[in-house]
Each structure stands twice: as structure tokens, then as C-alpha cells.
Amino acid sequence: xxxxxxxxxxxxxxxxxxxxxxxxxxxxxxxxxxxxxxxxxxxxxxxxxxxxxxxxxxxxxxxxxxxxxxxxxxxxxxxxxxxxxxxxxxxxxxxxxxxxxxxxxxxxxxxxxxxxxxxxxxxxxxxxxxxx
Length: 132
Hints:
With 132 residues, this protein is an alpha/beta fold. It has a single domain (2-118), classed as 3-Layer(aba) Sandwich (Rossmann fold), CATH 3.40.50. It has 2 helices and 6 strands. Strands 3-4-2-1-5-6 form a 6-stranded mixed sheet. β3 and β4 (45-49) form a beta hairpin.
């Protein structure tokens, strides 16, 4: 099975799952990370670094600032995924952290690939890290 992990700071919450899956010789495990100095291989997981080509627009409306940041990260991951696809890799499963936007556009590349999304945080309107 070909498995693609998506986490801007891989391994993050996948530090146990990814290497365990990589132990099976029938699996090919790849991970996208925004770490600039990531090793090529970590515990049997092939690491691919990607980066955003721009930052958030200065003076953008504050209600869309966080959304724009996530779209920028999603685009960076999308472009890395295009390169991976063009190299011949099609994952059977994508396991992604949803918190930073990286997984937003992956189904545009691999529409038929199953995707599991790790939803770490549930927002409330008061008392959490966002306030309305």
C-alpha cells in the first residue's frame, strides 16, 4: 500500500503511526513536511519538504487572514503533490493533519484516493484560540 502523510511539522502526531506502517515491506510510506532540513528518510518514511512561495497579504481583512494563510499552505502542498504524482506516485491512502490547510486541494490531484483527516481541535466561539 502507498501511504502519504501530510503534516507541516512531520512527524507531529504521526510519530508512531508512520514508522509502524513503514515497517511493513508491502507499504511505501511518504511524508510531506515544511521542515527545511528534513532528512530524506526518517524511520523508513521517505520525507519530502515543501515550502510556501509567499506570505499572507499585508493589510488583508482580519477575518480572512487565517484562511488566506491556509490556502497558501494548501497551494504549496498541492504543488509538491503534483511533482510527486508526476514522478509516478499515487497514494492508496492520504493521512493528513487538517489544522494548517495542507490537505485542501489534494483531492484535485488524487480524486479517488481515500483520505483520513486528523481533526485535532474543535473550535468554540469563546474561550479558545479564536474569538468572535
